[in-house]
Amino acid sequence: MAKKAQKNFEEALKALQHIVGCLEQGDIALEESIKNYKEGMDLAAYCMSVLKKAEQEIYVYEQETYKKIEGENWE
Predict the structure, then answer these.
(1) Which domains does the chain have, with CATH numbers?
(2) Bigger pLDDT: 20 or 68?
């Protein structure tokens, strides 16, 4: 499911939240818990990488915009 959920951030986050809820309830078998844990960790890593990329894109955009503003003649 992790690979399928990685189509976009929102789907991956929703799948991760569902897994966390299942694990917190604690009423599933150990083997299923381990499977869910691994899938959740994969989803968490994917979400973190998407967020990191977004953060980098925003930073680059801000820096480019500040350079444009500084280069403008406002007189």
Answers:
(1) 2-71 (1.10.287.1040)
(2) 20
